[in-house]
Amino acid sequence: MGIDVKEYRPPWGHLNLMSLYCIRKMHLQLIFWDVMAQDWSAKETADSICNKILRRVFPGAVICLHDGRGENGAPGRTIEALKKAIPMLKAQGYEFRRIEEKYETAGRSEIS
After folding, report:
1. How far apart are CA 66 and CA 104, in angstroms?
2. Which of 7, 43, 53, 101 has its CA 20 to 30 A from that of 109?
3. Closest C-alpha to 96, from 82, 106, 107, 108
């Protein structure tokens, strides 16, 4: 497919020996997150997602959001939440970067 995968975020943050072996064998960067807004859940609204992001974020945090496969309307609610949250976070001095940038400055480390 021509996609150069470099990072792996384990679903639900769950790992086992086989997944760790595969991550190492494929030379992937293991990525975890600091902020989860439950944006996949049908009970969440754009406002509740936005509020969770704003309450939970801190400098250097990795925010985990989903672009599909959630309950009805989940991707749309996430987009609406970001339309509200991003300007507010920028006004507070936050900057947004791709995950690769976080690890470029720290140096690429692999699981030993």
Report:
1. 23
2. 53
3. 82
Which domains are delineated in the chain?
1-32 (no CATH), 33-106 (3.20.20.370)
- pLDDT tens digit sequence for 83-104: 999 999 999 999 998 887 776 6
Structure tokens at 11: 């679903």
d(CA 54, CA 51): 5
pTM here?
0.76
Helix (H) or strand (E) holding 63: strand 63-64
Helix, strand, coil fractions of the chain, as percent rounded to 5: 45, 5, 50
| Residue 14: partners with Cβ closer than 8 Å, 6 or more residues away | none
- d(Cα 100, Cα 9) in Å, to the nearest integer? 13
pLDDT digits (tens, 9 = 90+) for 8-43: 889 888 999 999 999 999 999 998 889 999 998 888
